[in-house]
Each structure stands twice: as structure tokens, then as C-alpha cells.
Design goal:
The protein is α+β, with helices and mostly antiparallel strands. The strands form four sheets. Strands 11, 12, 13, 14, 15 and 16 form a six-stranded mixed beta sheet that branches. Strands 4-5-10-6-7 form a five-stranded antiparallel beta sheet. A hairpin with a 2-residue loop joins strand 6 and strand 7. The longest helix is centred in the last third of the chain and has 21 residues. It is globular, with a radius of gyration of 19 Å.
Length: 288
């Protein structure tokens, strides 16, 4: 790696002041798990890294409020995995963490860094979107809040300005919702997936009152499937409806081929796993 400057500000506001919106070689450094690999490969050559490890501890805290769960963006994935508050208020996140990469990565990687990196193969974005999460973004002009689904604009792309940072993730109280997350890997359970499907359903007797359906890994970004959600809303779930939902998902999603599968293969996966994830949510079985 080529030499670079390292700044270690003591506050998030000071960190933002050090970020240059006109210089792409100045980057924030949270966990650094992805950034360091890019630097070692020569894909990214920074002139300056702004470390966030010494900023206010509140950005690494996890706490519950009356409105739901709040996760500081500098919380490590391991701290989220071990959090009693997360396990109580959003157990799907806890179960998902068990196969998110490996323990070495989870001990270092942060929630905010993982979201800002916008890798479509990551487990957290589809799960958090299905749970209705919002994020707080801080920049020179102050704070703004955003639905997490609106953060991602494309393949490794977000709406974040170069001098903006994610400060917090908020997950609303889930009430009676039934949720599930499934991912398909061709290797070990913690390998990069070929497809991820996250589902949150609000049941109404034997029917579904409303649904949030999110897919990723096979797509350019974590993507809500609005046509499928509309199809499931106020409907009794049966085999015909689930088959139609799978077909609608394939039509709506922008599927990309990669080393984990061709477009036809991923389309068939999506048809199968939309059905399985909806059924798993209805059965209350959670993540797998």
C-alpha cells in the first residue's frame, strides 16, 4: 500500500469537517474490513483516512425505546449479535448475525460501515429494510433521516455525499409482525450468497394484512418487491398465490449474473425462495 495520512478526530462532527466532498481519496474509516481489502488490492489509494474509532461512545451504543430499537452506526456486528436488546426487540437480526461472514469480520466491521459500503451481498440491508428501518445521516448541513431502502441507488452506490456519515439505525417496534430471512449459498452458511430474501408479514387470521418483501445478492442492490407486496396484501396465502408471487418477483427484480449463478438460475432460486420465505414467516420459524 502507498503511504497515507491518518486522522483520529474525537467527535463525529470533527470527522465530518475532515472529509473533503471534492476529493475521493479522503475516506472515513470505521471497521475497515472492506476498505483495507480494497487498499491491499490497489483498487483504492487514499490520501487520507479519517478514523472514527475515537468519536463519542454514544455512536457505538444499542438501546431500546418506546418506538423500537436504536443501533449506533459504530456498533460492531458482534455487539449487535450479542445485544440482549436486539434479541428481545428484533430477534431476526440476532439470528441473521450468526451466519453473516465470520466471527473475525463481525468483531471489527460496524453497522454503519456495512450499510455505507452498499455491497448487495450483505445480509443486513434486506433484513433491516424488511423490518422498516430508518437511518440518521449527519453532514455539514446537519441531520437528515432516510428510510434504509432509499439509501441504496445501485451496485455499491448510495445517496451519501462524500462528507456525510451514517450515525444511527432505528428499527421500529414490530408488534405482531411475523418475519423470516433466508439466504442461498453455494458454499458454507457464512459464504457470499447467491440470493437473500427477507420477509415481514402482518397476519390477519389466515390471511396477510400487509407485507414487506426484500431481495438482494441476485440484484444490483437490496430491493423491495412492491408488486409482490401488493399481491400478498389482504390475501389468503395458498399455493397458487405463492407461485404467482414468485413469478412477479422475477419480473420486478433486476437480476445480475455472477460467479454464484446465471440469470436463469437466480430467477428460479427467487421463485422457490419467495415461496419458502413467506411460508417460513407464516410458520414463525425466522431466519435460516
Amino acid at each position: 500500500m502507498i503511504p497515507f495520512d491518518l486522522a483520529e478526530p474525537r467527535s463525529l462532527c470533527d470527522a465530518i469537517k475532515l472529509l473533503d466532498p471534492d476529493d475521493a481519496t479522503v475516506r472515513p474509516l470505521a471497521g475497515g474490513t472492506a476498505l483495507m481489502l480494497m487498499m491491499k488490492a490497489g483498487v483504492f489509494r487514499p490520501s487520507k483516512l479519517v478514523s472514527l474509532r475515537l468519536v463519542e461512545p454514544k455512536y457505538s451504543m444499542i438501546w431500546a425505546s418506546g418506538d423500537g430499537l436504536r443501533i449506533g452506526a459504530l456498533s460492531t456486528l458482534s455487539s449487535v449479535e450479542r445485544s440482549a436488546e436486539v434479541r428481545k426487540h428484533a430477534p431476526l437480526i440476532t439470528r441473521t448475525m450468526l451466519t453473516l461472514s465470520n466471527v473475525r469480520v463481525r468483531n471489527v466491521a460496524t453497522v454503519g460501515g456495512a450499510l455505507a459500503h452498499a455491497d448487495p451481498h450483505m445480509d443486513l440491508p434486506p433484513v433491516l429494510i424488511a423490518l422498516g428501518a430508518t437511518i440518521t445521516i449527519i453532514g455539514p448541513k446537519g441531520e437528515r433521516r432516510l428510510a434504509l431502502e432509499d439509501l441504496f441507488t445501485g451496485y455499491y452506490e448510495t445517496v451519501l455525499e462524500k462528507n456525510e456519515l451514517i450515525s444511527e439505525v432505528e428499527v421500529p417496534a414490530q408488534g405482531s409482525k411475523q418475519v423470516a430471512y433466508m439466504k442461498v449459498t453455494t458454499g458454507s452458511a457464512d459464504d457470499w450468497p447467491a440470493l437473500c430474501v427477507a420477509v415481514a408479514l402482518e397476519p390477519n387470521g389466515k390471511a396477510v394484512k400487509s407485507a414487506r418483501i426484500v431481495v438482494s445478492a441476485a440484484t444490483v442492490k437490496a430491493t423491495r418487491l412492491f408488486s409482490v407486496e401488493k399481491m400478498l396484501a389482504d390475501a389468503a396465502i395458498d399455493d397458487k398465490l405463492l407461485a404467482n408471487a414468485g413469478n412477479a418477483a422475477v419480473e420486478e427484480a433486476e437480476i445480475l449474473p455472477d460467479i454464484r449463478g446465471s440469470v436463469p438460475y437466480k430467477r428460479e432460486l427467487m421463485r422457490v425462495y419467495i415461496r419458502r420465505a413467506v411460508c417460513r414467516a407464516l410458520e414463525g420459524e425466522g431466519a435460516h
